[in-house]
Amino acid sequence: MTQYDPVPMERKWQKQWKEWELYKFDFDSDRPVYSVDNPPRYTSGSLHLGHATGYSLIDFAARYRRLRGYNVFFPLCFDVNGTPTEVRVEKKYGINKLSVSRQEYIKLCSEYAESFINEMTLQFEILGESMDPSIYYQTDAPYYRRITQISFLRLLEKGLAYKGTYPVNWCPRCMTALADAEVEYTDNVTKLNFIKFMIKGTDDFMIIATTRPELICTCQVVAVHPEDKERSHHVGKKLLTPIYEKEVDIIADPKVDPTFGSGVVMICTIGDKDDLEWVMKYNLPLEKGIDEQGRMTEVAGKYEGLPVKEARQRIIEDIEIAGQLIRKEELQQNVSICWRCHEPIEYLQVPQWFVKILDFKDDVLKKAEEIKWFPEFMKVRLQDWVNSLGWDWVISRQRYFATPIPIWECVECGQVVPAREEDCYIDPTTDLPPVEKCPKCGGELKGCEDVFDTWMDSSISPLYNTFWERDAERFDWLFPMSMRPQSHDIIRTWAFYTILREHLAVGEKPWDHIMIHGFIMSSDGTPMHSSLGNVIDPIPILEDYGADALRYYASTCSLGEDNAFREKDVKHGKKFLTKLWNIGRFISSFVNEKPARGELKLPDVWILSKFSRLVESVTNHYDNYNFDKAIRELEAFAWHELADHYLEMVKYRNRDKDDMGVRFTLYTTFLGVIKMMAPILPHVTEEIYQSFFQEMDGAKSVHVSDWPEPILVDEDEEERGEFLKEVISAIRKWKSERGMALNHEIELVELVGEKASYLLGVERDILETVRAKRLQIVSEIELEEKVTNLKPVLSKLGPEFKQQAKEIISKVQQFDPYEIAPSIETGTLEIALSDGTKVKLDGNYFEVEKKLTLGGKEVETLQVRDMLVAIQL
Ligand SMILES: [Zn+2]
Ligand SMILES: [Zn+2]
Q1: Any idea which ligand is nearest the CA of 446?
Q2: Mean per-residue pLDDT for 237-249?
Q3: 217: closest CA among 253, 195, 242, 192?
C-alpha cells in the first residue's frame, strides 16, 4: 500500500487474522484469563450504528487485554430467541400464534433468525471485531437451552421458583405476560369522561371521571377522600353503575386524590396497580373484564368479545345516549406499553411462573458493590431499580419461540413433575415425562406450554461461558468472568437478572467489571432503535471510510454517555489514519534495522520522556475503559508532538547514518504509539507494523506483540525540550506568516536573555531545523533603532490641506527620513509651499517608521517566553 486505501487493506488483514486464528482462546495456557461476557447479538439481521459502536467499544477492551498478555475469552455469540423475531415473522407471513401449529411457528422463527447469522458474522468481521468463533454459541441451541433448563430446575428444587396466580402485566398483542422491566411508558392524550353514577334510591348522583369506561363492568367499590367535605357525607350509601345498574358501596380512603378528576375513584379489578392495592386491601372479588387477547369478557355483558378500544367507544356512546355523560376532557396520560410491540398493556390474572426477587434484594445490592462499575455512576441505576421492585419476576411467557419450561403438570390435581436434569434439553410439549402418570393421583400429565422469559436465558450467560454443570475444573478456573459489557438501557434487565441468577445458582458475583456504554443518538436527538426507524446504516460509512475510521469515531464516545453521530468525526478519523500511515512511511526511511539506544540528544530525551508518560497514562485509561481519553492523548502525541515537532527537529539527522539516538527514538516512540492504538485501530496499525516493524519487533502480528514500556522520564530535559520546541515553532511560524518557504535560509538567529543559555548545546538542532546560517546565544544585545520611512497619514493630511497635501508629501519625502524624524516627532518641522505659505508638521501627519538593527543590519524580533529572538535575513 503506497497511498492509504483502507477497504482492500482491511479485508486483507481480516482474512489473514482468521487464517492465523489469532483470537483463539487457549484452554491449555496458564496465562491470566480475561473473559468477556459478550452480549449475544440479537438476530435481527441489520447492523445499525449503535451496534457498530457498542461492539467496537467491547472489542477495544478485548484487544487491549490480549496485547497485555492475557488469554482472552471473547465468544462470538447470537441471541436467537423471543418476541422480536416472533413479531417480525408474524408480519412477514401474516400469521399469529393461533393460526399455525406450535411446531410450524417455531420452525418459521428459527429459519428466519438463522438466515441472518452468516451475514451478521461477516458484519462483525468487517468491523474488525476480534471475537472467537471457537467458543461460539447461540441461545436457542439445545446446548444452551439445556443450561437454562437445569438452572431453573435447581431454582424449583430450592423453592425459589413457584407458580402463582397474581395479576401480571399482560400484552394483548403479544398474548403474553411481561416482567416489570419489559413495561415502558409513553405520553398519550386521552379522554377523561365525567360520568353520572346515581345514588341508590334517590335522584341524587355522584360524578366519576374515568379514562377507562369499559372497566365499569368490573367496578367493585367507589372511594372518596375521608376529608372531602363535599362528598364524604355520601360514604356508606350505595351507587348504581351506569349501563349495568350494579350496586357498589361508597367508601372513604385516604389514597384518593380529591383534586383529580371529580375527586371520586372507581375501583375496578383491575385497571392499574393502584386498583390492585385496593383490591388487596378491601379483599374485593377479582373479576376478569378483559381476556388474554385484549377482548371484553362476559362480565362486560353486551360488549363481550369487543376489543378494549372499541368497547370503550361503544360504552361511552351508550352512556351519552342514557344522558349520563356530563362532559369529556382531554388528559395528558402516562400509558404503560409493551417494550416489544409498543401496544398498551393490561393487568390480568393469569397463572404464571415466578422467580423470587423480593427476598434477595439485599443480596443483589451487595453483589453489585463487589463488582467494579465503569463508569461508577451507573451503579446507582441498578440500586434505584432494585429498591423500586415490588413484585417477583414473572418468568413464564405464553409464547413459542423460546426455551420451554421443563415440567409437566397433572391435569387432575395440578401436581408438577419436573424434568430430570440428565434429560435436558427437553421440550415437554413433544417429549415424554420421566414418569407416565401423576405420582400423587395417577392422573394424566400434560407438558407445560409456557416458555421462559428471554432474560432467563441471557441471565445465565456467565454460567454458560464458564462451563457450569459441564466441567467443574473449567468452571473453577473461569468463573467469575472478567467483564460484562452492555448498554445502560438494560441495566434493570440483563445486569440485574444476571447478578440475581448467578447469586441464586452459585452465590457469587458474575463478573469483576461491568462496562456500561451509552446510545448513539440520531440527528434528531432520539436513541437509534430499529423499531423507531431512525437508524443509520453503517455499511456505506464502512465502504467510504473503512472500519478503522468508524472505530476511531466509536472511541471518541465517552462511556456511559449518549453520543450524537457525527460523520465529520469519521472523516477526521480517516484523515488521522492517513497521517499515521504517512508518518510510518517517513520513519521507515530512517529505520531499517532494530536500532540500539545510541547517544540521545535533547530532542530525543524530550520526546522519550513525553512518550514514557504517555505509556503510563494511556495504559491507565485502557485499564479503566476510558478509550476516549486514550485516543485523544495518542492522537495529540502522534500528530503534534511526534510528527509536527520532533520529526521536523530531527529530519537533518537522517544524513548521519551512525546517529542511533534518533533512530532508537523514532523506532521506540512510533512503534509504541502504533501498539497502543492497535486495540482501537487494528487494521492500519497491523499494516504499519507488518510493512515497517514486524521483522525488527518479531511478533507475528501487532495484536499479539508486547505492550510498550516507559523508557525514561526526565522532567528537566523535558522542560528544556519544550522550550526548544517553542523557539523552533515560533521561527517557523514567523516564516510562514511572511509567505516564506520553510527552507528559506536565514542569515542569523540570536537568542537573547537570561533564559537563552538554557538552549546551549542544541544550537545545531535549531540551525538545521529553522535553516539559519548562524546562531548566537547571548545574554544581551545592543539593538539600534533606525528610522526607515515617514509614512504620510492621508486621513489627516487630506481634510486639513486639501489640494496642498500632495505637495506637502512630496516635499517631506525629499528629506532623509532619519534626519527629519526628530523634528517631526517634536512638531517643529516647517515646510514652505509654492504659494508662499508655511505649514508646521508633527507626528499626526507623518508616522515615523523604525526598524531594529544589529551591526547596521535590519533584524526582526520575536518573543518566546522571557527570551528575545532576533532574526536577520
Ligand atoms: Zn407486545
Ligand atoms: Zn395428579
Answers
A1: 2
A2: 93
A3: 242
